[in-house]
Amino acid sequence: MRKLITPILAVAMAISVVSCSVEEKKQKEEKVMYSEDPHSFSKPNEAVVKHLSLDISLDFDTKIINGVALYKIERKTADSIVFDVKGLTINKVFLNYGKATTFEIKKGDINGDALVIKIDESTTEVGIDYTTGKGALALQWLALEQTGGKETPYLFTQGQAILTRTWIPCQDSPGIRISYDAKVKVPVGMMAVMSADNGQEKNATGEYTFDMDIPIPCYLIALAVGDIEFKAIGPRTGVYCEPYLLEESAYEFGDMERMLTVTEEMYGPYPWGRYDVIVLPPSFPFGGMENPKLTFATPTIIAGDRSLTALIAHEMAHSWSGNLVTNATWSHIWVNEGFTVYLEQRIMEEMYGREYSEMLASLSLQEVMEEIEEMGQDNPDTRLEIDLAGRNPDDGFSGVPYNKGYLMLRKMEETYGRELFDEFLKGYFKTYQFKSITTQLFEEYLADSLFSQSDIKFNTDEWIHKPGMPASVSVIESDKFLNVEVVMYEFVKGIDASEIETKDWSTHEWLHFITNLPNDLTRAQMSNLDDVFNLTKSSNSEILSAWLIYSVANNYEVAFESAEQFLINVGRRKFLTPLYKKLIETDENHPGLAASIYAKARSNYHAVSYETLDKLFEKQ
Ligand code: BES
Ligand code: ZN
User: Fold this and answer.
1) Of 32, 418, 438, 557, which alpha carbon lies 20 to 30 A from 604's?
2) Is the peptide bond between 361 and the residue preceding it cis, with omega within 30 degrees of 0?
3) How confident is the model at residue 169 (pLDDT cuts 50, 70, 90)?
């Protein structure tokens, strides 16, 4: 693994280049250094990729991708260029115009391997002919019965954090950006879409071409293939989905065009052209993934009443925080996720009002407080900037970068006022657009901008570098939630569930109700709630998930069959982990149930989910 050097980032580049002479510009560019990344073998300060032309074909029978990754590169000093690969077979490598060269694969560690290719001073292109391995972690190949529509097989990829190297040889560090074009050959009758400009119809040849002319880090290269159709929502927005869920998805995301306009009004023009969403089969391991131009999303947000679309606001917000300004390495992931939760909140407030967005904020606060409690107040992973060297970035993953990050930015907004804070945010996006940023650089920028405009002090240290939650965290009060608490008190004290007035409750009020129910409800009270509100059969995935966790914790066996079906059909890790955890914790109530469900369900999960769950079961 490479030694640590101080990250020097593109601050100079950020200063307007318009007035610079070519020579000055060149000098500034030469000063640009890439951050040291403990999760990539590449040496971008010596030779770096600039553009990828990908030419691949997909074989659904063997579950293998085969093709060529042709890179335009910029060589600085080195006589070799290093790529990240994991489980790939390298068939051949070549330089400009097919010139032969040699390569070596240096065996690595959790990061995979280093592919080192000899280059010389005339090299501007490097081609890699490769085949993916059987267990390529980014890929999930679904048999037709594992899809939503159950008629055509499916493939989707998940790149973040360090999985792109399992299907494309690449310099897989979020600090390195490339533009790309791609030619993807799939079986006739299927459609392919990517995080790029997409067509809107299947074609007769099965050969699809793509362009992404804006440079992106390669964790954002993404592909989905299957029986996919498109429906427009607004002039710049639309939804891709298997046909069985297309209409419902289009209804669910009906506010998307307005959401995009509202976000632009707050944070500056949307730079990516179109914003579409693809609703994937239920095994997608995340709620959403912000692949540029085309967010990947779980079907579990299709609730029928647009109540879970904060997730779309979140992924859309990443078009600014994450995709435009990107964390330099995964230790700084809060720079992506914390800003994004903050933007998500602001978008939701703008769209549906403060009362609504404060419910979301209150849920975030409760969630992160519980999580920090569980992780331990002194746990170093409860700092915003975390140390991931030698670890899988996924091991440091938690709600902390999201919600503690959000709460810090919210506190800054409250401290300096919205006007000043918004000005700071806009300046931040403009200054660092298409660049990568470390926590240190963020702190320096903050000192020079927001903090320099006021005498009020802000203690960033307790948020960023200290574990736990600072005592100064905002108090978040929601009248709607207070009302829920009053009603809950009455229910606990003995009124019948049918007397609870829930007609106007949003999903969030339901979640507040269920997650705060005391653990000493009687069996009769649980049945009463279930009979009146049909919770065990809820079609809202968030409500169902919360109820199932509560049911398992309280040994309400009536819900176990529903829990099993949910765990078999859904692959979203956020739902799986806490429910399996509860099942394992309460194993003596139902010996072997967790393991037997997992044995049935595991083959339906993407690697992101089963790798986390395997660890959970190993710990037993
Ligand atoms: N970029 C993340 C998903 C991710 C994080 C993938 C880390 C791999 C490593 C995405 O934007 C996200 O945060 N999704 C959340 C949505 C939620 C916070 C609204 C999810 O999937 O639950
Ligand atoms: Zn996110």
Assistant:
1) 557
2) no
3) very high
Last residue of a domain, one of 317, 339, 364: 317
Which residue type does 524 have? A
Catalytic status, residue 34: no
| Nearest in space to 266 (alpha carbons), one of 408, 409, 421, 406 | 421
- For residue 266, the CA-to-ligand 1 centroid distance in Å is 22
Active site residue 402: yes
Which ligand 1 atom is at minimum distance from the Cα of 608? Answer: 8
Say yes or no: 135 and 56 in one domain.
Answer: yes
- The CA 483 to ligand 1 mean position distance, Å, reads 31
Whole-number Å distance between alpha carbons of 106 and 93:
15
> Per-residue DSSP letters for 84-143?
EESS-EEEEEEEGGG-B--EEEEEEETTEEEEEEE--TT--EEEEEEE--TT-TTEEEE-
Q: SS in 3 state form for 174-219?
A: CCCEEEEEEEEECCCCCEEEECCCCCCCCCCCCEEEEEEEEEEEHH
Q: CB atoms < 10 A from the CB of 76, how many?
A: 12
pLDDT digits (tens, 9 = 90+) for 19-46: 344 444 444 444 568 999 999 999 999 9
Q: Residues 243, 227: contact at Cβ < 8 Å?
A: yes
Co-location of 272 and 396 in the same domain? no
> pTM for the whole thing?
0.95
The answer, yes or no, to whether any atom of ligand 1 lies below 6 A from the CB of 318, is yes
Res 349: pLDDT: 98
- Looking from the CA of residue 314, the nearest atom of ligand 1 is 19
Q: What is the pLDDT of residues 326-383, one digit of tens each?
A: 999 999 999 999 999 999 999 999 999 999 999 999 999 999 999 999 999 999 999 9
Confidence of residue 619 (pLDDT cuts 50, 70, 90): confident
For residue 487, how far is its CA from the centre of ligand 1 (angstroms)?
A: 33
pLDDT at residue number 32: 64
Number of residues written out for the chain: 620
- In this structure, the residue with its CA closest to atom 14 of ligand 1 is 288
The pLDDT of residue 471 is above 50: yes
Whole-number Å distance, alpha carbon 257 to ligand 2 midpoint, is: 20
What average pLDDT does range 200-216 have in this prediction?
A: 98
Together in a domain, 219 and 313: yes
The protein residue whose alpha carbon is closest to atom 17 in ligand 1 is: 311
Measured from the CB, is residue 292 less than 6 Å from ligand 1?
A: no
Residue whose Cα lies nearest atom 6 of ligand 1: it is 160
Residues 271 and 294 in one domain: yes
Nearest ligand, measured from the Cα of 337: 2
End-to-end CA separation in angstroms for the chain:
32
